[in-house]
Amino acid sequence: MPGKVFFSVSMSLDGFTAPESLDAIFATPEQRKQDPRLDYWMTQWMELQAWIFPQRFFRENLNQGEGGEEGRDNDIARETFERTGASIMGKRMFDLGERAWPEEAPFHTPVFVLTHHRRDPWKRPGDTTFHFVNDGPHSALDQARAAAGDRDVRIAGGAETILQYLNLGLVDEFSIALSPVLLGAGSRLFEGIDASKIAIEPVGSEASPRVTHLRYAVRSR
């Protein structure tokens, strides 16, 4: 039996999953000096994701050494990883990650990248292989399902890619780590959603000291 298609994201209280620019993550000191917005966007990103950085699983998965917090936040991060047999992401997310991920990329499964350019698969240490798909989201999902077997397929992001799969009716469920921050602008998760075709049903919620974890099933109207 095939697994489910899902996404899981951190989101601000006003509905954003990323600040206006993630280029701040890679900015040089000179660039930061010339453009003070870079520090502001970096601060927003760190606040949005603050719940995950201290977790033991997150540190282990990025080879950041031993230690870290254990608890329900850590369990949820680990459970999300363990259920995932393959991931799908957009080209922009891949381009950003290619500069930020360690040599042993933190997926450890096949990853299918939506792109308009041809490129040979890119194999990384730790069983992550990036496959570049230029014939559309359905093809990427078919390939991801085949690779995942009876595990689930995660739509890793960014927001535009998640929205694309939602509007195509291809997402079964999703989870949001609702962070107690306001961004004011950026990538809004549900901007452009076709609400006439999609309904959601609450599945569960759990509060931790840092975020509230919300889970929903997706249904067609």
The average pLDDT score comes to: 94
- Which range does the strand content fall in? 25-35%
How many DSSP-defined strands?
Answer: 11
**Regions with little confidence, pLDDT below 50 for 5+ residues:** none
Helix and strand element order: EEHHHHEHEEEHEHEEEE
Termini Cα gap? 25 Å
Question: Going across the major beta sheet, what is the strand order?
Answer: 5-6-4-3-7-1-8-11-10
Main pleated sheet: 9 strands, mixed
Instruction: Name the shape in a single word.
Output: globular
Total of helices: 7
Helical percent range?
25-40%
Organism: Catenulispora subtropica
Domain Bacterial bifunctional deaminase-reductase C-terminal: 4-212
Protein name: Dihydrofolate reductase family protein
InterPro entries: DHFR-like_dom_sf (IPR024072), RibDG_C (IPR002734), Riboflavin_Biosynth_HTPR (IPR050765)
Brief summary of the model shown:
This protein has 221 residues and is of the alpha/beta class. It has helices at 29-34, 37-48, 56-61, 72-83, 91-100, 137-148, 159-167; strands at 5-12, 16-18, 84-90, 110-114, 122-124, 128-133, 152-157, 173-179, 187-188, 198-207, 212-220.
Notes on the protein architecture:
It holds the Pfam family RibD_C. By secondary structure, this protein is of the alpha/beta class. It contains 7 helices and 11 strands. It has helices at residues 29-34, 37-48, 56-61, 72-83, 91-100, 137-148, 159-167, and strands at residues 5-12, 16-18, 84-90, 110-114, 122-124, 128-133, 152-157, 173-179, 187-188, 198-207, 212-220. It is globular, with a radius of gyration of 17 Å. The two termini are 25 Å apart. The model has no long low-confidence stretch (mean pLDDT 94).
